[in-house]
């Protein structure tokens, strides 16, 4: 993205463990891959490729966020498109051959493999200690991000204070070039995967620079840590990580809600985004959320009355942040109308929400009193000030108003142990199935309950 089109031959052989390990590669491919991993410049290029992989529509380019939000939706949005894969998510009825799920898994492991190859060759980075730290930190940040969304989508929820021995996903931490060697791997526990995520993200925070252009910097890593701790229910650590980002990153809320979205360049609210340009492809969220006039398919995902009912304040700009598609009369979100808009992964509004809820749950006032902080966030959208007292339900609804359609919904239900329609938060159908391609090619793999195998 921007420079992500700079690809090297090695990517021909850095295929996903699950979906493509049946392919046979010509020996010349392996030679090209070895050559591409032999210099500092090329290791840096491989790292660029990790961003490119994770920014594709199969991952954070849109399809992952869509699956997550449709899985959590009951009455706030509806899938009206023709693709069967997201319809299965909305119906809470995944099949093991769901192509979107397969590609989320495969693309994540492809990016992880590339990050592993970088981390194994850090000794080639000799230009400066700072450059070596930057490359290591970015690779660890991206690997942690990929594993975080793998484990929380393909494993049962993390339970704070428990042993969390339930099956997570395989920790594949050795880079693969030669696909003629066995690459089978069993599932690690949810706890083991979270331990790796926290280790990687903490190391990234320690060694990344304070600013790093549009690549991940130390505050992107700290924002990831805040999100991970928050998902675990470790609110004290989540609060402190979010407070660090809010206090020291230099980022702040955009002056109005509209300004936080559809941007071609990172704004003051963006802690980390995946870059999109006309050279790297379309923003896939636009494809499925926008009207045809805005570059979409006409509104595959439409806003329903349940979402509008969250806004009982006529002054709240977020309640009006939608439009009627003139082609068919459906109501669509305004968050995704720029085909080449960058995709925000971490923005300051989320950090405010993490800090205020964590303070609320811990009975603390780090940074700001929770009521003052929620009102400061609401003021950005013109919403009326809340008088209090705050409750868990009030905060939960505020997260939905602010973060709707950004890939948070099912994980907020799981974290707060709320039912999704008639389903308990830990129901088997709210976990992605292990892709059938992985089951077919990895004899050590076990399927999630409810999907057979």
From TrEMBL:
Database matches in CDD domains: SusD
Domain of life: Bacteria
Secretion signal span: none
Residue ranges that the Swiss-Prot or TrEMBL entry lists as coiled coil: none
Presence of keyword Signal: yes
Entries under SUPFAM superfamilies matching the protein: TPR-like
Compartments (UniProt record): Cell outer membrane
Protein's UniProt keywords contain Transcription: no
Domain SusD-like N-terminal as annotated: residue spans: 34-229
Keywords assigned: Cell outer membrane, Membrane, Signal
One GO CC term, this protein: cell outer membrane
Major localisation: membrane
Entries under Pfam families matching the protein: SusD-like_3, SusD_RagB
Domain RagB/SusD span(s) in chain numbering: 336-417
InterPro entries the UniProt entry points to: SusD-like_N (IPR033985), SusD_RagB_dom (IPR012944), TPR-like_helical_dom_sf (IPR011990)
Family: Belongs to the SusD family.
Protein name: RagB/SusD family nutrient uptake outer membrane protein
């Amino acid at each position: 993205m921007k420079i992500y089109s700079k690809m090297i031959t090695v990517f021909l052989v850095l295929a996903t463990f699950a979906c493509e390990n049946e392919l046979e590669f010509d020996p010349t491919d392996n030679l090209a891959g070895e050559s591409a991993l032999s210099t500092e410049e090329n290791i840096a290029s491989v790292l660029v490729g990790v961003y490119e992989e994770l920014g594709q529509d199969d991952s954070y380019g849109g399809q992952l966020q869509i699956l997550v939000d449709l899985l959590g939706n009951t009455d706030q949005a509806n899938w009206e498109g023709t693709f069967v894969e997201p319809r299965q998510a909305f119906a809470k009825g995944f099949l093991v051959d769901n192509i979107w799920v397969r590609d989320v898994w495969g693309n994540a492991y492809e990016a992880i493999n590339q990050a592993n190859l970088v981390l194994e060759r850090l000794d080639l980075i000799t230009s400066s200690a700072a450059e070596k730290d930057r490359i290591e930190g970015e690779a660890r940040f991206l690997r942690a991000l990929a594993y975080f969304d793998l484990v929380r989508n393909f494993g049962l929820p993390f339970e704070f204070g428990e042993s969390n021995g339930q099956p997570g996903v395989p920790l594949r931490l050795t880079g693969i070039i030669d696909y003629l060697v066995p690459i089978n791997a069993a599932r690690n526990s949810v706890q083991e995967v979270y331990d790796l995520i926290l280790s990687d993200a903490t190391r990234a925070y320690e060694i990344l620079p304070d600013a790093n252009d549009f690549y991940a910097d130390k505050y992107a890593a700290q924002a990831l840590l805040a999100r991970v701790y928050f998902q675990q229910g470790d609110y004290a650590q989540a609060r402190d990580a979010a407070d660090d980002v809010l206090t020291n990153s230099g980022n702040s809320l955009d002056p109005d809600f509209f300004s936080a979205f559809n941007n071609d360049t990172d704004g003051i609210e963006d802690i980390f985004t995946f870059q999109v340009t006309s050279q790297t492809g379309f923003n896939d969220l636009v494809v499925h959320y926008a009207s045809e006039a805005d570059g979409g398919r006409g509104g595959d995902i439409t806003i329903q009355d349940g979402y509008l009912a969250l806004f009982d304040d006529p002054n709240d700009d977020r309640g009006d942040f939608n439009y009627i598609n003139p082609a068919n009369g459906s109501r669509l979100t305004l968050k995704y109308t720029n085909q080449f808009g960058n995709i925000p992964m971490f923005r300051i509004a989320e950090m405010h929400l993490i800090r205020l809820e964590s303070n609320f749950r811990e009975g603390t006032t780090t940074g700001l009193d929770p009521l003052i902080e929620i009102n400061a966030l609401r003021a950005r959208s013109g919403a009326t000030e809340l008088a209090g007292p705050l409750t868990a339900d009030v905060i939960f609804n505020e997260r939905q108003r602010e973060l709707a359609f950004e890939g948070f919904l099912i994980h907020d239900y799981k974290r707060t142990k709320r039912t999704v329609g008639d389903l308990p938060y830990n129901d088997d159908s709210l976990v992605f199935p292990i892709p059938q391609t992985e089951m077919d090619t990895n004899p050590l793999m076990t399927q999630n309950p409810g999907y057979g195998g």
